[in-house]
Amino acid sequence: MTANRHSLADLERGTPFERRHIGPDASDQAKMLAQVGFGSLDELTAAAVPDVIRSTEALRLPDARSEADVLDELRGLAQRNQVLQPMIGLGYYGTFTPPVILRNVMENPAWYTAYTPYQPEISQGRLEALLNFQTVVSDLTGLPTSGASLLDESTAAAEAVALSRRVGKVKQGVYVIDADCMPQTIAVIRTRAEPTGVETVVADLSEGIPAEVAERGVFGVLVQYPGASGAVRDPRAVIEQAHGLGAVVTLAADLLALTLLTSPGELGADIAVGSSQRFGVPMGFGGPHAGYMAVRDSYARSLPGRLVGVSKDADDAQAYRLALQTREQHIRREKATSNICTAQVLLAVMAGMYAVYHGPDGLAAIARRTHRYTTLLAEGLRAGGAEVVHAAYFDTLTVRTEGRAAQVVAAACEAGVNLRLVDEDHVGVSCDETTGRAQLTAVWRAFGVEAATFGDSGIDELDAAAGDPLPEALLRTDDYLTHPVFHQHRSETAMLRYLRRLADRDYALDRGMIPLGSCTMKLNATTEMEAVTWPGFAGMHPFAPVDQAQGYLTLIRELEERLAEVTGYDEVSLQPNAGSQGELAGLLAVRAYHRANGDPQRTVCLIPSSAHGTNAASAVMAGMKVVIVKTGDDGDVDAEDLRAKIEKHGAELAVLMVTYPSTHGVFEEHITDICAAVHDAGGQVYVDGANLNALLGLARPGRFGADVSHLNLHKTFCIPHGGGGPGVGPVGVRAHLAPYLPNHPLQPSAGPETGIGPVSGAPWGSAGILPISWAYVRLMGSEGLRRATQVAVLGANYVAKRLEPHYPVLYTGPGGLIAHECIIDVRPLTKATGVSIDDVAKRLIDYGFHAPTMSFPVAGTLMIEPTESEDLAELDRFCAAMIAIRAEIDKVASGEWTAEDNPLRNAPHTAAQLGRDWEFPYSRQEAAFPAGVEASDKYWPPVRRVDGAFGDRNLVCSCPPMEEYDS
């Protein structure tokens, strides 16, 4: 009996979360260590991680807690947020997420654990969903080409400034911003414009571009439609005037308003930008939300970010793929036109599905209801003696109250409604689809309008008497969303099945391993995800008074402190809403630091040739000159070339950007020497945090010589990739750079007064998903994070050892060890047999795997990162597939199969192929059910290999027209 006796303390501990997060158990770790040649994780760590960077002290983090305890903590934080009716506006609105979309997209791992659709054959579901989103944006804006989402409205507008400069006729001059644009957008544009030498002018354009501005030359103009004040003005005269000056015109347009108002394209605009947040995406204290950009035809091939196109597969069947400049920063580097690397795919999918579910009539009905409530609110205010400033509006009113604005806002708050304090004399009020009669009454009372005058019957009387304040000349008359997809899924049954059908076409982490090097596709635990959709977090407006957001602010502060602790930095900003934006924020901090020290000439950014392409693009955006440093044959930075470049550019050296471990997956032995050499020359060191999953708990960049890093919360800290976004890219800095972190004009507590300005539209970026990373750190604790890193390094070395007899491992460190990823070289096999890296990647689909990262950082190679979350059985299944593929390549080499007709060249194979006449020199079994693939578990790609070049030559980026469906 005593053998079965357990203490209460033992029983209360339960299973630590780290055992759920880390795939290999102790027994499997022992087998893997034996394969690699070590007796323990600590022995492996001591051999793989250089002594000069290794941390000796434990991280000062709270002890790990159970999943139940962490959820209780999160509930307590959510309860400290006071969620009032959001009537602040400024681009963020209450919205009702249809539960069928909330449960089956936002909360569904089939959607949120997917990766960017770079392998289109196994991404047809999310590509179709993104094509729907592009069609919604294109139809509503009246512009033919829309991208697959940008990071938010403000950064989309900043991208439009860069695009206008690039494609416009006027190469000098200023960029003119209407004074009625969103204040956060104006601020982000200023942050982004100044380092690149773009001068911005904010002017009241209600009467046109002022003559003194026009005389200076104008290369672009931005107008908000409707304005931040709520005013609906006809922009045609300004657009015509701007075009007469040779300027490119952008309208920042509200998608819901565009269901009723004339589209930007019909008005003559060249570009439209905005947010799709109010199409069913919760506010989440500022994000994540899918920004959008749509352009005229002639700008399509200059569009920043991702673009989904329609192509064809090997059977000439319609197939979708990412088109054109996708990941252009990898190809063009310092010549890239944007540093955008991620998008907001999960949120774009939600917004697109919101339009699919409601259809054009439903969207218009939501818009009319929102507008009608605004109209009745205005009529009641006027009847009570208040002055509504603008006669024409859609959903937002500016109300003049001499000296009483703060009092009105406070009274509304007492009644459960948040209004916008514009200044001491003006209050902003915005309606949305969640506005009801109770909110009208509360707002009237706050303004001192006698509530009894407007009970339910009074509202009906107002409704009967009130006209429509939208100008007749701006009412929309054309049809939109005419494609069948926006008319076929009205019932929840139909919608549910459509979402399931698309999800079944995709491969995500819920199916199997996605061994992508540099991308860290690890477990996104349900406990970490759960709080994101709770109303206490999801329902917060980003510009709500901070005393209503104490739960959020506590979570943000604690996450910042814990990220600073694990990285060795002094301060962290969570504002950047993508890794690329974290890079930009870090480089802007370095630039500001040098300028503050009287060294404005320090503009040279040294970047190793192997670096992630966003590094160079971000440096150019930060006003720096990129100088490439050679990479040695072993994958390390060429120390001799680095010293030569430092000597050459000494007085001009601003910063060295380096990825650590290196982009080649190796711990460089001389990183501290490299940092010291840069510091001795007066420069700063930026360590790209993309590979932090190999360091966490073992080494801290801020302690081994780095001054600044961005971190990828969507890699190391478990925020899911969501099919290509959301991402979060916080920036960590040492104390001397802290005064130059991002800040925000609408929330002073979001950053230092001396900061660089905002890099995102919301004060804390994509705050709505920060509970994920907070929960991960809380669940794992110091020791759990350390073991996760050790097992990630173990997994990579295990895979490398298993595959090394079959494929060369391109780069290794001392003892033949690697960090958390390995690069295998397919080039010799390609040269000998003609089997390409594409053939291997597509053949892996037949074996039930997503391919590793292809041809980065070295063309013709595969970069494999297993992470700590994959168990030994899955690692062995992947290794077995790769070994079997090598045997297939050998059959090509021997002449058993020709280079033109073999299972690799014809991969992937679809179910439809098996039902047709078989003309291949291998069997159906070999094609679809190679060794290790069970028929009952088979993943079937919906299309054969996609023809990328055809899609680029014949660019189609919205739902095909009706006649194609008819045919």
UniProtKB/TrEMBL annotation:
<dbReference type="InterPro" id="IPR003437">
    <property type="entry name" value="GcvP"/>
</dbReference>
<dbReference type="GO" id="GO:0004375">
    <property type="term" value="F:glycine dehydrogenase (decarboxylating) activity"/>
</dbReference>
<dbReference type="InterPro" id="IPR049315">
    <property type="entry name" value="GDC-P_N"/>
</dbReference>
<dbReference type="InterPro" id="IPR020581">
    <property type="entry name" value="GDC_P"/>
</dbReference>
<keyword id="KW-0663">Pyridoxal phosphate</keyword>
<dbReference type="InterPro" id="IPR049316">
    <property type="entry name" value="GDC-P_C"/>
</dbReference>
<feature type="compositionally biased region" description="Basic and acidic residues">
    <location>
        <begin position="7"/>
        <end position="23"/>
    </location>
</feature>
<keyword id="KW-0560">Oxidoreductase</keyword>
<feature type="modified residue" description="N6-(pyridoxal phosphate)lysine">
    <location>
        <position position="715"/>
    </location>
</feature>
<comment type="similarity">
    <text>Belongs to the GcvP family.</text>
</comment>
<feature type="domain" description="Glycine cleavage system P-protein N-terminal">
    <location>
        <begin position="19"/>
        <end position="447"/>
    </location>
</feature>
<dbReference type="Pfam" id="PF21478">
    <property type="entry name" value="GcvP2_C"/>
</dbReference>
<dbReference type="InterPro" id="IPR015421">
    <property type="entry name" value="PyrdxlP-dep_Trfase_major"/>
</dbReference>
<dbReference type="InterPro" id="IPR015422">
    <property type="entry name" value="PyrdxlP-dep_Trfase_small"/>
</dbReference>
<feature type="domain" description="Glycine cleavage system P-protein N-terminal">
    <location>
        <begin position="458"/>
        <end position="742"/>
    </location>
</feature>
<protein>
    <recommendedName>
        <fullName>Glycine dehydrogenase (decarboxylating)</fullName>
        <ecNumber>1.4.4.2</ecNumber>
    </recommendedName>
</protein>
<comment type="subunit">
    <text>The glycine cleavage system is composed of four proteins: P, T, L and H.</text>
</comment>
<comment type="function">
    <text>The glycine cleavage system catalyzes the degradation of glycine. The P protein binds the alpha-amino group of glycine through its pyridoxal phosphate cofactor; CO(2) is released and the remaining methylamine moiety is then transferred to the lipoamide cofactor of the H protein.</text>
</comment>
<feature type="domain" description="Glycine dehydrogenase C-terminal">
    <location>
        <begin position="788"/>
        <end position="909"/>
    </location>
</feature>
<dbReference type="Pfam" id="PF02347">
    <property type="entry name" value="GDC-P"/>
</dbReference>
<feature type="region of interest" description="Disordered">
    <location>
        <begin position="1"/>
        <end position="23"/>
    </location>
</feature>
<dbReference type="InterPro" id="IPR015424">
    <property type="entry name" value="PyrdxlP-dep_Trfase"/>
</dbReference>
